[in-house]
Design goal:
single chain; disordered N terminus; 48 strands; 14-stranded parallel β-sheet; 569 residues; 13-stranded parallel β-sheet
Length: 569
């Protein structure tokens, strides 16, 4: 969009540039013109050069760090070379011109080796930056970091694309460490030059328009792989438009991918696996891919597996405390230590405002959950179930729609596939506490089990509306249903007592390969074979996204199918 400058704006611009240059003359740092490309060559460059061509390239990160860059500038590093130290260039771009860190030449990505520095790449109170095509390794707290220095700071438009961040150091000693790891954008705690992050939450700070695409984040002794906090912990502010796409996270001590305090955000086509490896208990409550206290945000087309936890959680996807209008769709959680999907809300008294928090209108649709509840490292949620609805310390749930999902349930520890009535953890009843009049339903879902340890459900009376589902346990003719604290052997006994699931079935759904739980998104494995009782047996759910797990338009005929994949039959 073109900008029209008035005379007053032009005069203001001229005066600003004049004053800027006056102060620049007195400052020890170098300030250069806008829209200039600078080159850095660790083999043939020299810091006495002007840096503006490949033949006059700079040599070290120190030279780059001593320069204040402006809108439209590019800082290019020679491919195939390693640059030692922490890259922390100065300045901010603008909406009309980002500052870009990128690569030039041929060969592998240039490597920024952070060593024992706090980060490999660090930006503080800086906006309108692109970081792309860089490999970052080392750093004692962060790989790539962008954050705020204190209260009432705003960072906008940080784009990180095509980067490989790995072998980041750090340790997990407390809950503050949730914001440490491979790729971190943080408006939650102030940056501290000694420890990395302060121990007191910021107030009034936000991070907006953060985009991380086609990155890998792996192998850190810190907490997380990709973590973005859009605003201060416990406040009412939310960061706007945070997107994480086409990225892979693995081998962290805690979380895989986490977005906090955000609105209108998304995690799409990402994979998080083999995270939650901390054994000290300090990692606390990690999950593979999740939102915390976010609004109108979506997880879509993601895969989460082999997630663990030394304390609580250890599952695949999570819509957590005070999430409002968030969606998990077209995603695949498998082989996780505990749940495939958690819908949760709880008052965290240490950090949040002193009011109860409510999870509002969460939607879980057209997903596949397979072979979760596999156990392993101890977690209080090992028996939580595959789809779990829990609250803690005064949290509540007002509205939830769980529909057209397919579950293969084969837990190591006896547990229900669907659970909202878990019991006591750390002195608190974490069972779901429902409030309000918003719709709460569980419909059009398939639960397929092949072990007698796999209960179908353990749910409270009259909270969720259940119907048009298929329940099947190939190992027994009498699967177990726990409703309102009473255990029923067999579907008929449960249906009669509960007055739920009047249109549901206890029958083999005839899945093509219903026990699949390998890495890689399913294609046909959970499709319905000809003659499946799930075909045309579902009910209409309004605003259902209009497609199934693999992208097929729904419905294919006049009626919806049950499960995550619509049949052509």
């Amino acid at each position: 969009m073109k900008k029209v400058f008035s005379i007053k704006k032009f005069i203001f611009f001229v005066v600003t540039v004049f004053l800027f240059n006056v102060f620049a003359i007195a400052a020890p740092l170098s300030v250069y013109a806008t829209n200039v490309t600078y080159y850095v060559d660790s083999v043939n460059g020299s810091d006495s050069n002007n840096g503006t061509s490949t033949s006059t390239a700079w040599r070290t990160l120190s030279k780059v760090n001593s320069t204040t860059f402006s809108a439209g500038d590019q800082i290019l590093f020679n491919r195939g070379q390693t640059f030692e130290g922490m890259l922390s260039p100065l300045g901010s771009g603008s909406g009309s011109g980002y500052i870009t860190i990128d690569a030039y030449g041929t060969g592998n990505r240039p490597i920024i080796n952070g060593g024992t520095n706090i980060a490999c790449i660090k930006l503080v109170d800086q906006s309108y930056w692109r970081i792309q095509n860089i490999e970052a390794t080392g750093g004692s707290v962060f790989g790539i970091y962008a954050g705020v220095s204190g209260n009432s700071q705003t960072i906008n438009c940080i784009f990180i694309t095509g980067c490989n961040v790995h072998d980041v150091g750090g340790s997990v000693t407390s809950s503050y460490d949730v914001q440490k790891g491979c790729i971190v954008v943080c408006a939650m705690w102030p940056y501290d030059s000694t420890t990395g992050l302060g121990t007191t939450a910021t107030t009034g700070s936000t991070a907006n328009y953060i985009y991380i695409d086609s990155c890998t984040a792996a192998d850190t002794t810190g907490f997380g792989g990709i973590v973005v906090s859009g605003a201060s912990w416990g406040g009412s502010a939310r960061g706007t438009s945070i997107g994480i796409t086409n990225s892979t996270v693995s081998n962290t001590m805690g979380n895989g991918i986490l977005v906090m305090y955000a609105t209108g955000s998304y995690i799409q086509n990402c994979v998080a696996h083999d995270c939650g490896n901390d054994t000290t208990g300090n990692a606390g409550t990690p999950a593979a891919v999740w939102f915390y206290t976010s609004t109108s945000s979506t997880i879509s087309g993601c895969e989460a597996y082999n997630q663990k936890s030394p304390g609580i959680d250890g599952g695949g996807f999570d819509l957590d405390t005070a999430s409002n209008g968030c969606v998990v769709q077209y995603s695949y959680a498998h082989d996780n230590q505990t749940y495939g999907q958690l819908i949760y809300s709880g008052l965290e008294t240490t950090y949040l405002a002193s009011s109860f928090y409510t999870n509002i209108n969460s939607v879980i649709r057209y997903n596949i959950f397979s072979y979760n509840g596999k156990g392993g490292t101890t977690s209080d949620f090992v028996g939580a179930g595959d789809i779990a609805l829990f609250c803690y310390n005064g949290g509540t749930i007002n509205g939830v729609k769980i529909y057209n999902n397919t579950e293969y349930w084969h837990p190591v520890v006896e547990a229900p596939a669907l659970c909202d009535n878990y019991g006591i953890i750390n002195g608190y009843n974490v069972s779901a506490s429902y409030t309000g009049s918003n719709t709460k339903l569980f419909k059009n879902n398939i639960i397929y089990s092949d072990t007698t340890n796999g209960k179908m459900m353990n749910i409270q009376k009259g909270k969720l509306t259940l119907d048009y589902n298929i329940y099947y346990n190939s190992a027994t003719t009498n699967p177990v249903f726990i409703y309102d604290g009473t255990s029923y052997s067999g579907f008929t006994a449960y249906k009669s007592a509960s007055k739920q699931d009047s249109h549901s079935k206890n029958a083999d759904p005839l899945l093509t390969s219903g026990t699949y739980h390998s890495a890689g998104m399913p294609s046909t494995q959970f499709s319905l074979q000809s003659g499946s009782p799930a075909v045309n047996a579902g009910t209409t759910i309004s605003s259902n996204g209009s497609r199934d797990f693999v992208g097929t338009v729904v419905p294919q005929n006049s009626s919806y199918d049950i499960g995550a994949m619509e049949s052509p039959y």
